[in-house]
Amino acid sequence: MEKYSRIDLDWYSIIAINKYIFGSNEKGINHKSQFINGDGLNMELILEKFIMHFNAIYGTKPDKLKEDNGRKLFLLYLRPIINDVGNYYIEAQTRDQRRTDVIVDYLRKQYIIEPKIWHGDEYHTQREKQLSEYLDYYHINKGYLLSFDFNKNKHSSTHTLELNGRTIVEAVV
Prior knowledge:
two-stranded antiparallel sheet, 6-stranded mixed sheet, alpha/beta, 8 strands, about 40% helix
C-alpha cells in the first residue's frame, strides 16, 4: 500500500472539498460569484453555506476539533471564493500585541472573523466583547463570529446582534 504524507492528504482534501462545494465547472452547485456583491463579499451567505456544507460533510456528530482545525476548515472553504482577488491573514498582531484570528482583505474591504469553539455562555460573551474590541481597533462596523458548537441540542444558524455600536453576525455550526 502506498503511503501518503499528511501534506498529500490535506492537498487531496482541498481538491475533493472544492469540487464538492463549487463543482468542477462554472455551473457548480455553489459557483463563487454568488458570494460576491458589487462592493465586496457577502460574508453572511458564505457563513450560511459553510454551515450547510459542514453539516453535510461532517453530519450532526462531528469529532471534537480544536479551534485551529475549525479555522482551517473555514479557510479551506473561503479560499476558492476570494482566490486571485483577496487574501486572508491568520493571527494578525495588533499594535497592542493582541491577535485577531482571521482578517480577510477583499476589494479594499476588511472582514474580521473569529472562529471559536463553544464553551458556554460566559466564554461566548467574552468572545463577542473581544470581537467588538477588534472592530473598534480596525474601525470596522461589522464582524463575524463563527462558533463550533458540539452540544447535542445545538441549532445551526446565523443571527445578528448589536454590541457597543458594532454589528456582529454569528454563525453557529
